[in-house]
Amino acid sequence: MSAADQRVAELVERWMTSVELHARYLALNDTDYAKVQDWPEHQRPSRWVVDLARTRLLELKRLLAERQSSHDAGFAEALELMAFLTSLLGSEHVERFIPLAQPQPAATQKAARRTEPQRSEPRAAPVARAARNTRAASKRPAAPPPTPAPAVVTIEAPAASDKATATVIADAVRLISWGREWPQLAGLIARLADRPAEAEVWKILRQHRSEIETRARRPRD
Fold first, then answer.
1. How many CA atoms lie within 13 A of 32 on its CB side?
2. Fewer Cβ neighbours under 10 Å: the N or C end of the chain?
3. pLDDT tens digits for 85-120?
4. How far apart are CA 117 and CA 140, in angstroms?
5. End-to-end CA distance of the chain, in Å?
């Protein structure tokens, strides 16, 4: 095994360990997830992203083993070069990624999962309070029923949150930098997980087109 083979194999194992940890963290709520590791700023990966990463890692391990058995040292060197170029050239504005998770001591894991117990009153207190309220209500004269006011129903279309808007903008910048055309953006973004509907995506894109194209460094058609 060449030095490049060894380095790539160790990197893939670290990634696999990280993905397996993220698979366990899926059961945590957002508060416990934020405490379990010292995370960089990122969008929490969903289950399908974690599963996809695991599938692709297993395929990469298989390919790497095949090339190592045929003594193809150039394959690992090409992987290292591609990883370097990806971080150098292709990661601008990337917000959706799986941060590297490190195995933690058992005590830290347990503390991250422990939730603060809720304080509860003694059982006798609610019963006594309910009895007092019942006696007081029986002594008060009955009030005439209030005249119901006419119901007014207002229906408003749900607006995208600031987080959703920022996510759509980042997606659009990334897709344009990858060569996608403006008319393709809404359909591609709406198919991603946890994104607004396509109509809402189009609304965000139109409102922020100048910002998106400036960040993508591509002039408007």
1. 16
2. C
3. 776 665 555 556 677 777 876 544 554 455 444 444
4. 39
5. 51
Q: CA 8, CA 106: separation in Å to the nearest integer?
A: 29
Nearest to 102 by CA among 10, 33, 39, 26: 39
5 by Cβ neighbours in 10 Å (0-12 / 13-18 / 19+) ranks as buried
| Cβ-contact 17, 93 below 8 angstroms | no
How is residue 188 written in tokens? Answer: 């591609």
CA distance 82 to 80: 5
Question: Residue 18, class by beta-carbon neighbours within 10 Å (0-12 exposed, 13-18 middle, 19+ buried)?
Answer: buried
Task: Kindly state the tokens that stand for 129.
Answer: 């309070």
Structure tokens at 122: 């003694």
Each residue of 135-155: pLDDT tens digit? Answer: 555 555 555 555 555 444 443
Q: At what angle do helices 73-89 and 3-25 cross, to 10 degrees?
A: 60
**DSSP H helical segments within the chain, as ranges?**
3-25, 30-36, 47-69, 73-89, 106-113, 124-139, 162-177, 185-190, 198-207, 209-216
Residue-range domain boundaries for the chain: 3-113, 162-216
DSSP 182: G
Q: For residue 64, how many C-alpha atoms fall within 13 Å in the half-sphere facing its CB?
A: 23
Q: Which residue has the tokens 């971080």?
A: 87
